[in-house]
Amino acid sequence: MATTVTVWNEYVHEREHEAVADLYPDGIHGAIADALGDAGFETQTATLDDEEHGLTEEVLDETDVLTWWGHAAHDEVEEHVAERVKQHVLDGMGLLVLHSAHLSKPFRKLMGTSCGLKWREAAETERLWVTNPAHPIADGIDDYFEVPEAEMYGEHFDVPEPDSLVFTSWFEGGEVFRSGCCYHRGQGRVFYFRPGHETYPVYHQEEVQHVLANACEWATQEDGSGVVRGNHDPIEDLDTSDDRTVH
Amino acid sequence: MATTVTVWNEYVHEREHEAVADLYPDGIHGAIADALGDAGFETQTATLDDEEHGLTEEVLDETDVLTWWGHAAHDEVEEHVAERVKQHVLDGMGLLVLHSAHLSKPFRKLMGTSCGLKWREAAETERLWVTNPAHPIADGIDDYFEVPEAEMYGEHFDVPEPDSLVFTSWFEGGEVFRSGCCYHRGQGRVFYFRPGHETYPVYHQEEVQHVLANACEWATQEDGSGVVRGNHDPIEDLDTSDDRTVH
Amino acid sequence: MATTVTVWNEYVHEREHEAVADLYPDGIHGAIADALGDAGFETQTATLDDEEHGLTEEVLDETDVLTWWGHAAHDEVEEHVAERVKQHVLDGMGLLVLHSAHLSKPFRKLMGTSCGLKWREAAETERLWVTNPAHPIADGIDDYFEVPEAEMYGEHFDVPEPDSLVFTSWFEGGEVFRSGCCYHRGQGRVFYFRPGHETYPVYHQEEVQHVLANACEWATQEDGSGVVRGNHDPIEDLDTSDDRTVH
Amino acid sequence: MATTVTVWNEYVHEREHEAVADLYPDGIHGAIADALGDAGFETQTATLDDEEHGLTEEVLDETDVLTWWGHAAHDEVEEHVAERVKQHVLDGMGLLVLHSAHLSKPFRKLMGTSCGLKWREAAETERLWVTNPAHPIADGIDDYFEVPEAEMYGEHFDVPEPDSLVFTSWFEGGEVFRSGCCYHRGQGRVFYFRPGHETYPVYHQEEVQHVLANACEWATQEDGSGVVRGNHDPIEDLDTSDDRTVH
User: Which residue stretches belong to region Disordered (chains A, B, C, D) (predicted)?
Assistant: First the structure.
């Protein structure tokens, strides 16, 4: 059965700035969905202005992996939708958090940290080095690849130490950044991927598209493992007559 | 300079149930503060009924490590106080999360997961095995120790994979649990420690007190590392004339 | 292209003890290869008595995942073959290390620790709890499964903290064990899986076979990431005229 | 009780090259021992030419932390001494592995990987960024520090993913490197620290000395946790009459 990827975008810059619209005429979501479609995924898109931001229970139930791009309008994402996304991740949905979505509500809720970082817009060279060549998200990537014009993100990046660190970036201006970070959360898998900026053609770059496709494949949960929580009878023979409870 | 530990307790069961008061006549916080005081820490206590729950900016500024016990009244902890605690952890304060505080607001905020688990009250045997004997929190502990009467907590425990797993519990009724979990979050250190229950004398047990003291020592940040975030000029020579920004 | 799994077995107990031969008439390797073949993998077997233990460069070049079972004859594995296996793992071959192979030469070389543990043969109940339900190796497994008759392995298990801990075992006699441990090493993936004993029918059990199949799928590297090491010219403009070298 | 640090150096370059001797008139070991002595540690030194390389059982028994510098003579370290060092680490001794000691026998044995990397000698700028500001090894360090003249080491660095990644380096020529890597192995703690080169005055730099002192403190095991391995009677009541063993 095909993997269904829902590509979410706040879709603000593209409608307000001609330069962004020129780069991404169908929106950043359109560019990402096209690339993932070409890679063999079933894709659909959703944006901030859609009812429930396009992320109803029904849509998320049918989503294997959600990709999230946001920047100017993090605060406009409704609390209950952000919580719903988080819950679906804990229940097994994959989540790809892209570039400036480091400050998005779902990511911050799932990480538990500020997710802050250093930044600078100077169209500088970024070089992403593979720091875990055994990881499937690095599959088919050389020992590094370059983004010729990038916004700089620098350490300290306030996230939990990743369960696996797949990419580490070098920036022309002198900084480094943990650019490809994998997390397991509940039954779900989360991948933060740094490249991607509204005023540079990053999502049209082949290596970036290749990593996004690898990450969608990695983040797709099949059946998952059964999870049981709550009050629980003993499996072994056990005297359960203790009555000191104050519950 | 002495380490200052602030011992927080919701302090509900002890005032409502004679059996609990008999076990902990000075409250669970009193028992923990006594033990940590004997181990050489400066201690102070704070409870739910105190103004701002006893956790003002001033108190937290002077706190090296905060220990947290709660069970019946998680929802009564005010949102802004829980956020303040979280922020102080990210800024370098240590946090020990004890037993049923797995569902406390500060811990859930910092973990980003549901923190749910299996549970059962049957006064059964728990055996805590050291799974990382190189970790300072296990210092002076044999290869295992027992809690003769314990509430069972079982997997799946919905927390991020710990940065280090110091203890793993065996339960008489058939379950296992990751009972001693270390996390780095921002500049702070967090330790979840499972043992401790209102109707069993767990906090009077020598090994439990020993682990708490080890954990306070581990969680104490000295100067910390300098953290800089936000917009940042390049360190290297760099042409910063790019004006395509939509910021 | 189909995944090729090479199933290695020292194949000693089955030829020396009728009770073992009755359980595993085609050898432990035969039972495992049958199960993996039924799950859709291309399989081949190799044993200690084969020339080069059946693990020539040619065989390993064609192997996506190697499974290893040994117990009585670890020392009879030739050093250069153990090194060859290790090198192929670092170059991207998957490795499944089964039960008593915790003391095998390839695993000890790859872990760098003693890989020692506690043990007891008493045909006791083992219950494997899923501690990472987001991991693909747990896919399709309930929150736990039981091995009715197991040799006990207990902590402290002297291995590096796993990159992911998928299963944790409970034993009837009172111990716990980290039973499903994932490691990335070089470009390869290693999974240690505890169940499996020569005198109990563990490899005929459905859940065990299911986990082995999941693990083979997880451990299969596709193209891998390009790895470059050694002396390296600068990518950026750099004055390389420094001549203070003593190389 | 004071922490005893044994500073080991192959001590080859300093005796063969005047330029190195000028930088390190008492040897690299002398410079490191002086710095650690100033920081309050008891220090002693040992070199390749000493009997048993100065690392007898007696010396290692009294050593809390061993620091290791080697480059030209890794192969001259006797196998049994390298094994002895490894065993002492597994038994609780701390180990600091410095710069070109990434290819030393004790480190390669403990990591289980090739420990290879990219390198270049061009006296270029290195900038070490703190990627875990919560870790005690980063205590008192700003968000980064620079080594003005450094040999470049670049990814992929073939080591296991560190238990904590404290520093990540930026190099002028375009590469990044995981420069401060913590590992728990057995009961011991290992820290790999990249800076330090025979033809540059790196070990006279204040920040480098500060990190070395922090790392010695971190790596010092006090009592340690009791470790028991081998055949083991059940703790719980258990029928141990099973006689199907082939042991």
Answer: 224-247
Beta carbon pairs, A and B, within 8 Å: 165
> For B151, phi and psi rounded to 5 degrees?
-75, 140
Nearest-CA distance D42 → chain C (Å): 28
Q: What is the spatial distance between Cα A90 and Cα A110, in angstroms, rounded to a whole number? A: 9
CA–CA dist B95, B80 (Å, integer): 17
**Closest CA–CA distance from residue D92 to any residue of chain C (Å):** 12
* D8: amino acid identity, one letter: W
- Torsions phi, psi of A38, nearest 5? -60, -30
pLDDT digits (tens), chain A, 247 positions: 689 999 999 999 999 999 999 999 999 999 999 999 999 999 999 999 999 999 999 999 999 999 999 999 999 999 999 999 999 999 999 999 999 999 999 999 999 999 999 999 999 999 999 999 999 999 999 999 999 999 999 999 999 999 999 999 999 999 999 999 999 999 999 999 999 999 999 999 999 999 999 999 999 999 999 999 999 999 999 988 888 888 7
Q: How many CB pairs under 8 A join A and C?
A: 91
CB nearest A225 (choices: C141, C188, C226): C141
Give yes or no for a cis peptide into A17 (omega within 30° of 0): no
The pairing of strands D118-130 and D144-154 is antiparallel
User: How many other β-carbons are positioned within 10 Å of the β-carbon of residue A101?
Assistant: 26
Exposure of C242 by Cβ count < 10 A (0-12 exposed, 13-18 middle, 19+ buried)? middle
Residue B57: other Cβ atoms inside 10 A: 11
CA distance A76 to D7: 58
Q: Are D69 and D11 in contact (CB under 8 A)?
A: no
Fold of C4-113+179-219: Rossmann fold (3.40.50)
**Interface ipTM:** 0.96
Q: What angle do CA D76, D217, B220 make, to 5 degrees?
A: 150
- Helix, strand, coil % in chain A, rounded to nearest 5: 30, 30, 40
